[in-house]
Every structure is written in structure tokens, then in C-alpha cells.
Amino acid sequence: MNIPFNKPYLSGNVLASIQHVLDSGKLSGDGAVCKTVERRMELLFHIRYTLLTTSGTHALETAMMLLGLQSGDEVITPSFTFVSTANAIIRCGGKPVFCEINGRTLTMDVQDVERKISSRTKAIVPVHYAGVSADMDELCALAHTHQCMVVEDAAQGVNARYKGKFLGTIGDLGAYSFHDTKNYICGEGGALLTNDEPLARRAEIIREKGTNRSNFLRGEVDKYTWVDLGSSYVLSDILAAVLNDQLNELDAIQQRREKIHRAYIAGLTELEQLEKLRLPVIPEYCASNYHIFYVLLPDAAQRNRLLTKLKEAGVGATFHYIPLHSSPYAQNVLGLKDLKLPVTDTVSNSLLRLPLYPQLADDQVQYVIEQVKKILR
Ligand SMILES: *Cc1c(COP(=O)(O)O)cnc(C)c1O
Question: If you measure from the C-alpha of residue 275 to the centroid of ligand 1, how many angstroms do you get, rounded to a whole number?
Fold first, then answer.
């Protein structure tokens, strides 16, 4: 058996869709296919403005540029996240304030946010880990009280919901990723979402090198020029065509992932009852997109042992984030040697992810379950 940790899923039409763009002679960013995908996403996810970007990282950077951070401004985000969340804050002049996660859901710990929020806080950036939403009502209420913004890092949250609302559409701004490790992919890509018209207009300018080219293309101005600080974050139509195909299978992809997730839960519940591991929790207010299937082992030694033994059995299991606050950059450059986030450390040391992608066959899932059982019993 050789079961890789991840395999990018591509639809059967993808070559024809790419060929169509190549034949059109228009390959650059923000073209007709991008517009089609953006309008589709606005309808699918009930959001007024969707702007495709070159990555989830760039969607987060655009969001941070929109905040207009000044020196000393703080942005609260979990330490248990991908580096892009924190890079975006720092690159745009802010200071990341790392908070704890809830040990049950692995999303932002609201009480710790409450402790760390102040008049210097300009935004809260919740991360919807594994496609499970953060406590958005509580976080939005805190942000409202302290007059700061909520930027959702919904890189892992596409097509998942919190109390019926799609992740990425609840805060002031939301960021999606279509990197090939995510649920819906185009190689590298992302999107910025907002219901706020001024923010959307300015994001268009930032994405187009700081020019008002988008206004020009809509016939709103008769030439286009440099009007703001920007960069080049428009997605090529070639990649947008790949993403367009994925949207045709939006629910089918999710249903297959859900089926695998349920099979893992059913197969591993026995081990949870024996207290050999803990299974992921999806709170009742959340409709997951089943982005990640993880288990939590009692400690790092047992996690590492399971990881090694699974590799020997041909199963591509893997750990996840090294907490950002304990990374070399945070320790040496940001000076965070004294920051203690014990829940984050424990989760990081004990978490193990199992393979989860639409092409994973039922018998492969059963094989993974059997191996985990054999190793832990
Ligand atoms: C994947 C991911 C990103 C970055 O997305 P890219 O498209 O790879 O740039 C940011 N935040 C989180 C939580 C992610 O999982």
C-alpha cells in the first residue's frame, strides 16, 4: 500500500477548459473567466464582492493593506496558523498579537482575545482551522465593542458554514485559498470577499498595481493611472478556468470528503473510548467542509511513534503547524521568547493528520483505520 497524504483533485473537463482560454488569446489576469468565477462565487456564497487573487496569502495581504495599519497597530490572530496570516500583518505595518486556541475546536480562544484586545487593536483575524468555524458571533461582538475589523482567514473554509452563513462572508473581509492542498484548487490562487463597496473598490485598485484600471474597463474613467499603493494580485484566466471547473463539482467534492471523514470517525471511535486518541469536534453551529481529518494523541512521543509506524505501513500521515510564536522568526526577530500559549503547544505536539481527498477509495480509508488501530492497540 502507498497512500499519499494529498492528491490534487481535477475534473475531467480541465484540459478542455484550459485549451479554451489558450485559444481565446487572452491569458492574463482579471479576464472574462475570472469575472465568470467571481460572479459565480458571489451567488454561491451570498457575498456582494469577490475578487480572485494570485493566492490566499495575497488575499490576506490585500485585506491588511485595506486596514491602513500604522506603526504600533495590533492585529490579533492565533499562533496555530499558517505563516501567511502573520506575514500579511507585518508586511502591512502591523504587529501580530498571538492568541491561544480553544483545545476542543482548535479555533481562536475568545477569552484570550478578550484579554489581549485594546485600543491599539485594529483587527481580529480568526482562522477557520480544518474548515471548522471560529466563534464568529462572540468575535464580531468583541470587534464591534472595540471598533476594530474582523478579517476571516477562511483559506481552509471554502463552502463551510457558521450558523448558515458561509465562512469568509461573516467578517468585514474574508480570504480564501485555492492552493492545491485545499478543497477547491487551481494550483495557486485565492479570493478576497467583502460586502463593503468602498473596501471592494479599493481592493480592485490594490490588486491592479495601484491603478484604477478596473474603473477604466467598466467605462467609469476615460484613462487609467496610478491612484494608490498596490501590487499585482490578479489571477490568470488559465488558472481561473481550472477553478471554474471545480465550482461545477462544489458539492460533490464536499460530499465525498464528508463520507471519508465519517468513515474515519466510525472506525476510530473505539480508540477514543479506550482513550488512545481524541477525534475532531465539529460544533453543532458549524457545517464543516471536511478540509482536514486530524486526531490528537496523548503526547508528542505517541504522536511521533504513530507517524513513523504509519509511514512504514505506506500511509502518508503528517503533523501540522509549528506554532508561530515558537518559530525562529518570532523568537529572534519579534522577541516573543516569553509568550506562553500552552494549549497551542500541546495541540501542535499531539496532532496528526490522515489522508483526505476525493480520490481516496473506501478500501484505502479502511486500510488507514486498520493500521491506526493496529499501531495504537
Ligand atoms: C493555505 C493557507 C493560507 C495561504 O494560502 P495560499 O493560497 O497557499 O497562499 C493562509 N492561511 C491558512 C490558514 C491556510 O491554510
Answer: 32
